[in-house]
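TICKET #2291
ISSUE: user wants both folds in one file
ATTACHMENT 1:
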Amino acid sequence: MNDTVVTLVGNAATGVDYRETPTGGVARFRFAVTPRRWDRRNSAWTDGSTSFYTVCAWRSLGANLTASVNVGDPLVVHGRLRVRDETLDGQRRTFVDIDAVSIGHDLTWGTSAFKRVARANTALTERPVDMSAAASAANAATAGNGSGSGSGSDAGGPRSVGEPVHKQPWLSEQDESAAPVGAAGVPTGPL
């Protein structure tokens, strides 16, 4: 597919409007991007003209966006560019939309605290049932040769069917305060 993918840096111009649709939840907000340029004549930074975009975020990204973003927050938006022309009241108008793939706070202007959301649908992290026999054989072979790769639920033990493939033992979905923290405030453990 020939999509135009862009990354924009700016500020949330409106609050996030979240709605449930038959195909999943969608969040929308207006995003303001103002370029800054160095004016050599005045030896000062000047603002260019502000461009406004409508950002759409679907499903879990939209739900997390609603809980995380407020008006004026500096953001980095990455997604597919959509340009559409409409005629309203006899005037032709052009609208520029971004179908967001990823959105985050711009940490140039402040700090942010990440909080993992517990997901109701674990199908993305569970091992498929038909693959469990092959995985059990691989885990048994790994445990038998003493390599201790740590791919099982314990330190190399076999994984049971339905157990998440990607475990992060330092991160509790129920209580992040229980996470062991290193000297620099970074969680310690395997990545």
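ATTACHMENT 2:
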Amino acid sequence: MKSTIKSSIQADLATVWHVVTSLHDFSWRSDIISIEVFDEKHFKETSKDGYETSFTITVVEPLMKYSFLMDNENLSGEWTGYFNQTERGTEIQFTESVCLKKWWLYPFAKWYLKKHQKQYVSDLRLKLKLPISEDP
């Protein structure tokens, strides 16, 4: 299962990159309560619902591409973010590809991924003190 969100952010590329890739300032994220960093490639997030997800960073191309593998009790998969400087700020494209571990999650998975991605971009806009808008 795969879901992609694209958005234009009226902030410079370096700022957007720093906010998205920082493992230390997660206070802007409405979905998680903690991040535990193990080393430069491995970390774990704990959601407000108590789910723990392990991450392994696989690609860091500064100011261009950030990618990681993720795994928890419900799913495994990959998240990839692309960043591009534009005249009006930064264009982002975030794609999540997941394999579900429980059959009964399938009817809700696409809806959940889309909802989660929209919330992430909304949280990012709030962090950057930008108006929340609906991008196509």
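RESOLUTION: both attachments delivered.
EXTRA DETAIL ON ATTACHMENT 2: Helices lie at 13-21, 106-127.
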